[in-house]
Specification:
- By secondary structure, the protein is mainly alpha-helical.
- It folds into two domains: 170 residues, no CATH class; 59 residues, Rhodanese-like domain (Oxidized Rhodanese, domain 1), CATH 3.40.250.
- Helices cover 68% and strands 4% of the residues.
- The chain is built from 13 helices and three strands; from the N terminus they run H-H-H-H-H-H-H-H-H-H-H-E-H-E-H-E.
- A three-stranded parallel sheet has the order 2-1-3, with no helix packed on it.
- Strand 1, helix 12 and strand 2 form a beta-alpha-beta unit.
- Helix 4 packs across helix 5 and helix 6 packs across helix 7.
- The longest helix is centred in the C-terminal third of the chain and has 31 residues.
């Protein structure tokens, strides 16, 4: 934290731009603490709040545009890549698709405030062929609200932030160790959940080759496509003979299937 304060003091808005851009580009670095520190410096006259917001919006849009272009060019493959590296793969894209189906491109306004959504939303918007103008407009509003609230909170609690920094400085290396340990523990818990999730998948999983062999041998398994509507729009390819169902009403749909045949589900 002390190093971040020093960087802000020396490089000001350039450091704000770099930090926000890295976050929107997908780097695992924090942005809100930096914006709050920038806000605290603005309270003391070191920086300007409007300048902090404008620089944050510019950096955020640059990072979002990279992912938007990737989604527009490569489609769902970009989202699959993001989910492979995500520490919450089970809900990585599904929740984002649901928000897009419910609110459309306007859901981008909330993107910066929802963990995971900020990274997945831009490539999904590109894959869904959201027009560039509304994408930039909604993304700019989201970035302005997000950075403005964080920096504004820093200005409001400038005295408390100064006190906290002083306490951390007194603790010296112990403060860094405590923050690092908390971060490592959080990531370890998430990876443990990820491991349990993939272990459960492996226990009830069938490969594409095994499914093909069942079909060729005449076993006639029932194949159910539980991808969302937007996922099927992005990638219209499907397993021959599969039945598309809504996963939110899965029990009702499965009740109509023959129970004496293998039922195989696939998603994105």
């Amino acid at each position: 934290m002390e190093q971040m304060t020093s960087l802000l003091a020396h490089y000001g808005l350039a450091f704000v731009f770099l930090n926000v851009f890295l976050v929107q580009a997908g780097a695992p670095v924090p942005a809100v603490p930096m914006l709050m520190l920038a806000g605290a410096l603005a309270a003391g006259g070191g920086l300007s709040l409007p300048a902090i917001v404008m620089v944050s919006v510019a950096a955020s849009l640059l990072g979002d545009l990279i992912w938007y272009a990737a989604g527009r060019i490569h489609g769902f493959r970009v989202l699959q890549l993001l989910c492979r590296i995500s520490i919450s793969p089970d809900s990585c894209v599904r929740q984002t698709e649901a928000r897009f189906q419910r609110w459309g491109a306007a859901s981008l306004i909330a993107a910066k405030f929802i963990p995971g959504f900020a990274t997945v939303a831009p490539p999904l918007a590109g894959a869904l062929r959201v027009k560039l103008a509304p994408f930039l407009g909604y993304s700019a509003i989201s970035a302005a609200l997000w950075s403005g609230l964080a920096a504004g909170a820093g200005m409001l609690f400038a005295r408390q932030i100064d006190w906290a920094l002083a306490q951390l400085a007194q603790m010296g290396g112990y403060a860094l160790m405590l923050i690092g340990a908390a971060l490592v523990l959080f990531i370890a818990l998430k990876w443990w959940e990820r491991w349990r999730f993939f272990k459960a998948l492996r226990m009830a999983r069938i490969s594409a080759g095994e499914l093909y062999r069942l079909m060729q041998e005449g076993h006639e398994p029932i194949v159910v496509d539980v991808r969302s509507v937007s996922a099927r729009e992005i990638d219209p390819r499907r397993i021959p003979g599969s039945i598309a169902v809504d996963i939110d009403n899965l029990d009702a749909n499965l009740a109509n299937l023959l129970p004496d045949r293998d039922i195989i589900l696939y998603c994105t």
